[in-house]
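User: Show me sequence and structure for the first protein, then do the same for the second.

Assistant: Starting with the first protein.
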Amino acid sequence: MAMASAQPRHPLGSSLRKIFVTVRDSAMLRAYVCRIAQQGGPEMIIDCAHYQDGRRQGEGAVPLEEAAARCGQGGFVWLGLFEPGMEELTQVRDTFGLHELAVEDAQTFHMRPKVESYDGDVRLVILRTARYDDKAEEVEFGEISVFLAPAFVITVRQGVASELRGARQRLEQRPEVLAAGSASALWAILDQVVDGYAPVVAGLERDIDQIEATVFSGAVAPTERIYSLRREATDFYRAVHPLLGVVATVERAAAAELQPYLRDVQDHLLLVNEEVAAQRDLLGTVLEANMAVISVEQTKVSVRQNATIEQLTILATVFLPLTFVTGFFGQNFAWLVGRIDGLGAFLAYGIGGLAVPLVLLFLWLRVRRPHTSGSPALHDS
């Protein structure tokens, strides 16, 4: 009851509260409408926009059916998908009239970039993306399938190394390029993919420098690590080298205003291709050097083993006559004991028993030596 007798509210404060409630409710209403609009489209859609006259038409993602309808209104539609399933791709295929073989290609992970042409002036461009993981010290690969037509661009991304948000934002900030049509989106994607190769080259270069310093310092590097780096460099080369032909094909078919931008992408790609080829050859040399270091280490071990065996042989040679003398005169035969009763008999039986086998062994070796040395001459003749 005490609160009921409070002072009356100020008119200005009441008006401000009404304005705040109105703004808050309108913002909530816009968010609710966006959620309702997005519920009708597939969850794999990252972004979908209509571009005309170098500008993005409207804000937020355009629903799939509306995007297909806008394809006939001029400009082009850019639809971005991330790891869609078969049902979702089928929906996109039916909506935009894509060829079934092109959709099948978009779901298959390819080892090499390529470009294919289909009916309706639709081209499918397959790109391999790459990203260097500093924590794991390895290269991660992804793939982007681009369906390019005069009225639409559909990108299907596979793998984490295929981010395109930066490419879309940079293209939207350049209306003079965006006005060139759907091919400008393909240029932005190519530029993003090729720029993403530079950190991979730098990461592989650091790993190779570490392995190279270890090998050429005389230490043995892990052979498995060298093979792993060589496999990554080979996979990276398969992603970069065939892309040269793809970019050249796209450049020949592009409009005149886009050709300088595509040539710039081609120049960067040539540099990356040369770097990757050099890294792959260098890893082959490092692998051979590491095998040579391993061979040297094995030779050192063999030398140490031979030295140890030589020492043991000397000891055995010293104890061999002693063993013979003690074994010979330790026999308790009555005939032997009865006839060795002086120094002469001891020398005759003891020393003679050692000298006769040594002389026979020496003569046998002398007889065998001419045959052994003459056998190569027989083979040569």
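Switching to the second protein now.
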Amino acid sequence: MIMRSKQARPLRIAIVGTRGVPARYGGFETCVEEVGSRLAARGHDVVVYCRRLGDDRSLELETYKGMSLVHHGAMKKRSLETLSHTALSVQHLVRHRTDAAIVFNCANAPFLPSLRAARIPVATHVDGLEWKRDKWGTAGRRYYLMAERLAVKWSDALIADAVGIQDYYLEKFDKPTDLITYGAPVLDGVGSDRLAELGLTAGNYHLVVARFEPENHVDMIVEGYSASAATRPLIVVGSAPYADEYTNRVHSLADDRVRFLGGVWDQELLDQLYANAFTYLHGHSVGGTNPSLLRALGASTATTAYDVNFNREVLGVAGRYFGTATDVREQVEVSEREVAETLHLGWLSRQRARHYDWDEVADRYEDLALRLAGRERSADIVAAQPLVAVPDLNELDGSVPEPGYALDVLAAMARHPAGRAVAQPGHARSSARPAGARRSA
């Protein structure tokens, strides 16, 4: 664990680009809650920008686990939701400066020049290889490829949560990153009493927890399981707000042994589902280190994962792997036939969970924030401070995907009553460079 200097002054740190806290949705939000609360407990002033859940503002918290919360709305359209919320967040942030900012999701890269203009040093958590997700279509994938270049160009540091992501940025952009994974929650003593609400018993079901997206291979898992001779039911937790066609496909592949619970937002119940599953099936393929996989590790649950480098990095010899529906069928049947081996893999998973500690993750974010705050800012920064600056994409070096999609998004935001974008061409380049890559112990 990295030890903190007692002489280090507390920082004011902004966290931008997620749905915020309390964590109800995914890996970013879990990371923000786990890391932000720890940094706040160490005396730092942590400001988290949160997305409004509805029109009733009385439900919005001003503080949570020591963090200060700032709420803004968002346009309810998949391609605009994240960007519109980040636009409003950045508009507020440049008027309420912090010592450092952590921006999650490289899709938010068009807003980085505004933070640089406000002289706020910023690190971007680049997430996974989003351009590989089918849900975005051609225009969306072009946008994400462009956003990667912008994040490399305008971030003071980049954060990767998996070695595979770190290698990608080094090989494609010759850009080092800070390797900071997520933590694995240790699910000891969570009990099993809530399972009765679902008619389940401990150790007698297989589990899937995932958003319904093609890259998470829920359809492949359901298809393979339905073709198997498994005697334990398959419990599927998850949904997706913009994926009716894919959701219908998943349901069409299921037999009567498959139960769909939809989204489970009750953390106690969800933890019991993880901790008492016979196996966990994990189909995620493009998102780097996945918190759902780490939760299964911390629950000592034997895991069968889609065979990609990100999942092998986490599971290693503790996992079984699949690449087709036939593989799923075979691995499910093996897990039920070789019970002792399955239980042993669960034990191995727990040993690997020790390498993913939230306290150490918080240490690394604190170390990065201190480094950002102490960085000498480049003089080559635009003096003006627009609300939301749209970069001149023609200035980029090398071959750049067509920028039309990004500009269309921002133009739509400008017409929306929730906020506006200000076109600001010709942003100067900064000479600031991120520190060298660091790898977890």
